[in-house]
Amino acid sequence: MARDSNSLKRQKPKFKPQPKVLVICEDSKSGKRYLEDASLHFRVNVLVEITHCGNTDPKGIVTEAISRQGKFDRVFCAIDRDTHETFDEALNLVRDSKKVEIIASYPCFEFWLLLHFGYNRKPYAAAGNHSAADLLIKDLRTNSGMEKYDKGKVLGIFQLLLNRLAEARRIAPIVLAEAIASEQMNPSTRLHEQLDFFEELSSPRKAAPTP
Questions:
Q1: Where are the alpha helices (DSSP H) in 70-114?
Q2: Beta bridge partners of 50
Q3: How is domain 17-202 classified at the CATH fold level?
């Protein structure tokens, strides 16, 4: 029996359409490659565009994000605190934004990698000719499998550390909460929030029930 027109009108999609997401990375190498592999792992690569916009300063990245936000439901800026002079200005630009969000790492992306090997709240600061990132990477290289880590050349780092991912995701929120409570953000990261969002995207979102 054919359905009447009222029956057809009552039919609603069972699932909400997944949001279209843009992730702008500060670097075009290690961090970007890691997030690309993470999006594949969580099977959301068709929903997520991960790019490097040519800017490496936080303000430039956030400005790019704001200019492109009209085409996306959510926009993330994955940036390092490092010694960027425009970092605080970048935070202020999106303080009231409902669409653009900063995923910051203090002092750099590699702190997220370091958390795969256990809890760490050791602050990193430049010393002599070495930047804070240099010193953190030196610590990272003391761990098994990371001895030859090179920020610009490492491929497959997500898969290499996949068996430790659950530990990093457990520890990172603890470290971040402690950093916020102490008002000492160095070191900390929000990379786990980016991966949490990827995982959320990988599951269909049920539509609201029809009244």
A1: 87-93, 110-114
A2: 23
A3: Rossmann fold (3.40.50)
CB 177 within 8 A of CB 100: no
Q: pLDDT band for 56, please (50, 70, 90 cuts).
A: confident
How sure is the predictor about 64, in pLDDT bands with cuts at 50, 70 and 90?
very high
Phi, psi angles (nearest 5°) of residue 27 = -110, 160
**What does the alpha-carbon distance between residue 209 and residue 186 come to, in Å, rounded to a whole number?**
45
3-state secondary structure at position 45: coil
Residues 6+ apart with CB under 8 A from 77: 23, 24, 58, 61, 62, 65, 90, 94, 100, 101, 102, 103
pLDDT category at 8 given cuts 50, 70, 90 is very low
Q: What is the pLDDT of residues 16-36, one digit of tens each?
A: 677 899 999 988 888 999 999
The single-letter code of the amino acid at 41 is: H
Report pLDDT for 13: 53
Residue 141 region by backbone torsions, left for phi larger than 0, else alpha for psi between -120 and 50, else beta: alpha
Mean pLDDT computed over 167-175? 98
pTM: 0.88
Domain ranges of the chain: 17-202
For residue 154, CA distances in Å to 32, 149, 150 come to 11, 6, 6
CA atoms within 13 A on the CB side of 34: 24
The one-letter code for the residue type at 39 is S
